[in-house]
Specification:
With 223 residues, this protein is an all-alpha fold. The protein has 2 domains: 142 residues, no CATH class; 78 residues. The chain has 11 helices and no strands. Helix 1 crosses helix 7, helix 4 runs antiparallel to helix 7 and helix 8 packs across helix 9. The protein is globular, with a radius of gyration of 20 Å.
Length: 223
């Protein structure tokens, strides 16, 4: 519902403007959630939530096994839905808009309605991710609206590659591994190394970097 209501703001401006609008919407929602402390808990967040057993049988244990399986199955279902959308006429029209908006409009594609629909769909996916966070952690704070959370999603997209169905999944795996590895090896400077990786990725290019990695792996196999 929030995505549908704020989708009209996304129609104005170019891609960079839309990006800034989405970040601004998150900050506005953070202040609204902070003001509605009766519902959201305010700065203290929602605490003391009790999540019932999954399907009435599987309890959410301390080790996170049930939460992991539940999140993985939800990801699998939503990924299949996204794959169906991408390969549908609706998804093909979105590809046409991404490549050339004016040409897609000239071909009769309702650009504004498509942008509203895909933004609302993306908001629904974000809502599903937020629901998983609440159910698996039994705690929600205002940090979910902070700029750092939006920045993490953007970094995942940059690493995985925009316009690629598997980019979000691949980018999240790489980003999580980099974050855990670098933060454990260099707790004070891990963001420096992550930023350096992103700079190299932007300068060298994802395709050439993947070729270099494949060559290094092949050499390691030979040795």
């Amino acid at each position: 519902m929030v995505g549908a209501l704020t989708s009209l703001l996304v129609l104005r401006g170019s891609d960079l403007t839309r990006l800034m609008v989405t970040l601004g919407v998150a900050l506005v929602l953070q202040e609204v959630a902070n003001a509605l402390s009766t519902w959201t808990g305010g700065a203290d967040g929602l605490q003391g939530m009790v999540v019932g057993p999954l399907l009435g049988r599987f309890d959410f244990d301390l080790y996170g096994r049930t939460a992991y399986a539940y999140s993985l199955m939800t990801l699998f279902v939503l990924f299949l839905l996204a794959r169906k959308v991408v390969h549908s006429p609706f998804g093909l029209s979105l590809m046409a808009i991404r490549r050339n908006t004016l040409r897609a409009s000239a071909l009769g594609v309702p650009v504004n309605r498509r942008l509203i629909a895909v933004y609302t769909l993306a908001a629904a996916y974000a809502g599903a991710a937020g629901a998983l966070l609440a159910q698996t952690k039994a705690y929600v704070s205002l940090e979910v609206f902070e700029f750092s959370r939006s920045a993490d999603v953007l970094l995942v997209l940059i690493i995985g590659g925009p316009g690629w169905l598997y980019g979000g999944v691949a980018g999240s795996f790489v980003y999580s591994i980099l974050q855990d590895t670098l933060s454990s090896q260099a707790p004070q400077f891990w963001m420096f190394w992550l930023g350096l990786f992103l700079v190299v990725l932007a300068l060298v290019g994802r395709d050439r970097l993947s070729v270099v990695v494949r060559n290094l792996l092949s050499r390691l196999r030979r040795t």
